[in-house]
Structures are given as structure tokens and as C-alpha cells.
Amino acid sequence: MLKIAYTKAHGRGELDLLLTELAYRFKELGLETRGIVQINSGCETERHCDMDVQVLPDGPLIRISQYLGKEARGCRLDPDALATAVNEVGRSLKTPYNIFLLNKFGKQEAEGGGFRDLLAEAAASGAVVIAGTNPLNADAFSKFSGGTATCVDATIDALLEWFDSVNTT
Fold first, then answer.
1. CA angle 35, 32, 100 (to 5 degrees)
2. Which of 27, 33, 87, 161 is deepest in the core (most CB within 10 A)?
């Protein structure tokens, strides 16, 4: 049985804060977590935040956004930095873990790239998988999971309750 869930939060940066807090809670519980969470900075002074990802549990912090100019619109994801993050997370999967967190199942994953293969590897290993997504990619995530993913409310309590319901370790 796959133990895979996704959650959606709609406010700017809410999902990132939620999943970062969830990773912290899992660490407090002594669980081995792999994957990434996103940490935004510069949001107070800039229209666009700088986006960094923390490789779990204690890997490097990688800037995945690129500056395209003050008035730039569209995707600011740095594909080379994303590839670096994917490689770092892939290396971390060589040691035992209970949970795989992904800050966002986004466009890259929906199109077959990004962290998609690592998500599949984690799910196939029996680990609990929790990913953030947005309404644009929720259907792609559902298809990726073969329709087995559970949508969990975007609260710490709901995510921990779901985890407790599927965790068999």
C-alpha cells in the first residue's frame, strides 16, 4: 500500500511554512526525513521572494530562484539549481528514512522531471510521502500516484493525524 498524501495552501508562502514546520515536528519525534522544504527570504522588500530549499534532514541550503529583473514576470526557477537539489536529495536517500517531504509538486514534476523519480523511489520504498502542490498541478499529482494519494487539509494537526494513520514503523 502506498502511503502518499498531498496538501494545498493558498496564501503566499503558507505551504512553505507549513511543510517546514512539519519537517521540524518529525525531527522532534525522532523520525528520519528526506526531501526538501522551501525557505523564502526578501519577501518584505521585494515583490518576488528569493527561494531557497533546505535538503532534509540537514543538507545544504540551495537557492533555486534566479533574479530576472525587478519587473520580470513568469517562472524564476533556476533549472541548474533544481538539478543540484535533486542530486543532493538523491544522495540522501542512500541512508534509511521514514518520510519523504517535497515542498511542491510543481510544473517540473507534472511534466516528468524535477523530483518526480525520487518521489516514486520513496513511495516504492515504503516511506511515507507528503508533497505540497497547487491547484494547477493537483490533478497531475493524483495521476502520478495512480489515484491513491490522499488530499490532507493544510494544517499541522491534519498532516500529523494522517501520518499516524498510515505509519507502520
1. 30
2. 33
